[in-house]
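Question: what's this shape?

___
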Amino acid sequence: MTATTSSRAEILAALELWLQVRSQSPQDAVPTLETALVSARDLADAVLLAKVLVALGQVSSLLGKGLLALQYADEAVELLEPLGEEYAPDLVAAWRIVGRVQYDYGHDDQALEAFTKALAICTTSVDRVSVQSAIASIQIELGYLEEAITMHKQLIGIAENANDFVGVSHLRSNLAIALDRLAQDTSETELAHKHQSAALENAQLALIGARQTEQKALQSHVLRTLGGMALKSGSLDQAWDNFEESLLLARDVQSPTNEIHALHHLARIAENLQDYPRALSLANEALEKAEEHAYQEHASQAHQRLAEIFEAMQDYQAALKHERLHVELDALVKSQAAARRAEALAAQMQVERARAEAKAERERADALSRLNSQLELQALTDGLTGVANRRALTQYLERIHALSQRSEQVFSVALFDLDHFKLINDSFSHAVGDAVLRRIGLLLLEHCRKGDFVARYGGEEFALVLSGATGSTTFEICERFRLLIEETDWQSIQMGLAVTASFGFTDQTQLTNVDAILAVADQHLYMAKNSGRNQVYPMSVLKVV
């Protein structure tokens, strides 16, 4: 096994390991993926490198390393975008990393943009539904409720056709939240009632689906939504039942967030019912759970609830104590949120700076590549006539000669010389002579066959390499060029100017080397000039030596 093959195998093994551990212990894949990243860079394989970057972006996102995840995903996007539809799933995964991290940073607009780009290139229905669901959730957060409702309804239809009952329940739960918020924002009573009824119906259907599929965490979440709706409608008993069941399910699946929410609302209901001992017990339990998990925002809300309960009980000293703690924690939460926003902004600026630097580096590399190509082209092109130069002719002849030695491909070589060219320079000037050479270059480029090669051999001498031509065919091609040169309107360059050319060719390409082939063509050119010029030698196939 070669070193390259070994490196590829190690990279593929690292990616396979990531697929195995991502759902349970993603951190276990980090060392192997980081080693694979180094190997992929050394191989300069864009596809493998992009796949490793996507995997590292995913694991970094899961481990809460948002900035690192963005950097990995951003580089992966740059590599994958030029590769075409075959690698669309990898590009979708990269854009989803960007969207997820931006959403976590609170950059909802940028998250929506990333998920929208992912959606545009999705090739599977599973990816499409997942990305659209993320977009719809962000739209709810951004307040684009009608757009979110429309998209959720479409996704529910897709999920139902695919018999994805868990997906349907999740989507109906989100749809219920969007409809409930739209009802609150609608000033027209009848329309608000219509939205509220639709929200309740979808929440109930979501709960049925969650129970049928035994999704306890989803059941707890939907019951919270139903409890909130019941509270707004004044159905305290129904709200209590919903939140109490939500609490039990949250404890069963160890979901502290759902548990705290349920406790908070139950305390609120108990307070409304003036059952203050129970309200205090529930609010204190919510506070303990929030402090246990360091949820400062939830702890702040619990202190606020306790302050309200104590105030209702006319225990103003206890109420003041909890109000003070609520204010302090609320200020801390807002300060930390501002710090996170600042950190996220700094991270985004760093990513944008890295992106700009990468773009500038690519542009420099592209410019250098173009310059090198131009220099290489210039090194192989005759500056005056625009056809290939002698160096390029030699390189081409060596390649086609080697190919003919390995196969039955035939070719012939012709040299032609402009007759009495020194006299043209002496009689009309070197400027006119240069104009003649430029016109010859144009004639060759315009009239040569596809696959033929034309070059300036030196001075007023030119070469033709005619692919697939031998004997009489070569003669006919050379004769056509001879007549073309003779019949060209040279008066447009200089009054009284006439130009002819003498041709010598050979199809003896079985000779041992290129120099020998050129020597025969040159000998035949000499014969053409020595026989009176403005002719092709040999004049018939039978005369070819």
In short: The chain has 21 helices and five strands. The beta strands are 411-418, 453-458, 461-467, 501-506, 536-537.
